[in-house]
Design brief:
Layout (H helix, E strand, L loop, with lengths): L14 H47 L2 H7 L9 H5 L8 H9 L4 H4 L8 H4 L3 H13 L12 H13 L6 H8 L7 H13 L3 H100 L5 H47 L12
Helix pairs in contact: 1-12, 4-12, 8-11, 10-11
Amino acid sequence: PLGLKEDVLPTQRSSLSNAGGNFFMAGVGFSFIFAWLLMLVVLIIFVVGGNVYVFFCESWRNQQLFQLLDTPGVIPNFSLSELLGLEGDTANFSEIYRQCQKDASLWQTLHLDQRVSLDELLNVSQYTGNISTAFEKMNITLSPISLLSQSQKDLLLNASRAGQPPDFTLTLEQLDRNMTQGSLLDLAAELEQLAEKQDTDVKKDLEGKASTLRKLDKEMQASFSGPLQHLRENIHSVQSGAAQLEGQTTAALDKASKTQEFLEREMPNIIKNETWAFLEQLLDFFETYISWAKSRLTDDVARCKPVAQSLDNVEVIGCDYIMDSVNAFWFSLGWCTLFLLPSIILSVRLAKFYRRMYIADVY
């Protein structure tokens, strides 16, 4: 357009205008030369991208692809149930995909309970019978139990007999008497009577002695009455305890003998019962662990949601990113190819208004 001037004759057009016309014709020539290659590229990309999008992406989104795979005979000599070792046609791709989207475990998704029975495999009762039989056959033999030997019993009896206290009768009689051989109060009374018959000096001396005797008796009573009473109580306690010592020793020896007989008779049963109770507790622990392991294995182990997410991610990458781009590419190339025809016509029609002519066709 820059080299085109309307008032110039076609035979006198400038080189710039002539170059523009040549470019128009060159474009027409290149269009004829390479249009078939462009059409072939559009056709190949259309066949690949369009069919893949329709048969894979669309069928994936509406689940028709899984329904096609689940149709018997689509894949010759292929059965998912036989491959997994399941009975009947219980396994199909659609159900597996839906279970994986719900984050189910492979045990539930693949119906592995039909192939492996956990109840039979992890049944503790089949071992409990064997354990019970073996336990019943077990014979518990203990060494003789001896709490007290005969010599020890004789020593205890001899000690109880030898531990009798002496006769405290005379001692108690002496304790009940006065602490002095004579009564100090009687002596003080006699001194007072004697003082009445004497003169003044002797009278005062005798009365003083009598008063001293009364004080001494009072002090003695205050100092010795408590300990003497405590001594009497201790003597009576020793006498009563010593009288029961032999009987208590005999009773204790009888209890020891009965205890020894009970241990010899019942100890094997006690040990057996306690051992069986311990075994039952261990079996309860084991059953609890097995229940926990079964629930974890069937519900939590090998959840297949990552598999479904991976397939969904493949679909997103392949369809939303790659196939959409491929389809957009062939669609754009198709429009370019479609516009080649009007561009050829327009270029041929415009070329004569730009190229330098040898003969002017002006009338």
